Amino acid sequence: MDAIVTAGGIPQSGDPLYTYSNGDSKALIDVGGKPMVQWVLDALGESKKVDKVIVIGLTAKSGLTCKKPLYYLSNQGRMLANIVAGVNKSIELNKKSEYVLLVSADIPALKGEMVDWLVKTAMKTRDDLYYGVCPREVMEVRYPTSHRTYTKLKDMEVCGADINVIHVSMATDHLDTWEQLIGNRKSPLRQAAVIGWDTLYQLFSRQFTLQGLVERASERIGIKGRALIWSQAEPCMDIDKPHQLEIMREDFAGRQRKAASAGKKFLAVKKNSKSKSIKKAVSSKIKIKSKTKAKQK
Questions:
Q1: Residue 250 lies in a domain
Q2: How far apart are the first and last CA of the chain?
Q3: 45 Cβ partners below 8 Å, 6+ apart?
Q4: Is the pTM of this model over 0.85?
Q5: What range defines the domain where residue 34 resides?
């Protein structure tokens, strides 16, 4: 399955991340010593389920790398237009392409095994859209100060994932509805109003379960949708605000400190083991020499 990475956003004056981007793409903001999008490409490169990666909004001059074949497309100006362009590129590269991954460039904590779980789980059925959600308790255990926006349902509170799977037909069907839904992606209530005012009321009054909301949205849009519940917060931890950027920077710094500490311990153990081996070898030689001299006498 090909992966489409949306990386075209450039923070403008007034955007919370404007002072961090230096007038460049948000995807290139540093996290843990790399552009945040590079961590995403690393995860996709490690995935066993990803064939090719299409990055939208950046060029080869960005210096990004990936273990999988990497293609670039220019920013089309709108999120939906970028997605459509990415899907069309995937079909151009492989006429048999049926499903694609849609991946945001601002989830640097993503891992290859998480990508594999998503694709494997999604492909158990033949739906049009697979949308990931993270329960509030999962997010707040991992990132307690993230302050995500949650959709409050009858059976749980969830936030959306930033890596999802769609059928390629989604790039040609129901585009007006998708335009509105994507434009209101940060507001669950506004998205509900797009689907219908009765849906908005029922969501506002917490009458929907997760499955009930999926069924209503699928029926109104005219697709087969399926919600996938993440047990890990990383695919849903995108960086939209300065405090979220600092959370991720500190998280990566903590991981790097642990890795450095583990590396030092490993070298110390290896050095100690080598020293013991040398002492043992010297001791053995001395014993052999002593026995040889004793025999000669």
A1: no
A2: 78
A3: 53, 66, 67, 68, 112
A4: no
A5: 2-240
For residue 295, which phi and psi values (nearest 5 degrees)? -70, -40
Tens-digit pLDDT string for the chain (297 aa)? 999 999 988 898 888 999 999 889 999 999 999 999 999 999 999 999 999 999 999 999 999 999 999 999 999 888 888 999 999 999 999 999 999 999 999 999 999 999 999 999 999 999 998 999 999 999 999 999 999 989 898 999 999 999 999 999 988 876 776 676 666 566 665 666 656 656 655 655 677 788 888 888 888 878 898 999 999 999 999 999 999 999 999 999 998 888 877 776 666 676 777 666 666 766 666 666 666 666 655
Instruction: Specify whether the CB–CB gap between 106 and 162 falls below 8 A.
Output: yes
Considering only CA atoms, which of 20, 115, 7 is closest in space to residue 67? 115
Is residue 5 within 8 A of residue 53, CB to CB? The reply is yes
Domain for residue 296, yes or no?
no
Report the run of H or E that residue 205 belongs to, with start and end: none
Q: Which tokens sit at 71?
A: 């293609």
Q: Assess if residue 88 is contained within a domain.
A: yes
Give domain status of residue 69, yes or no: yes
* 157 DSSP β-pair partners: 152
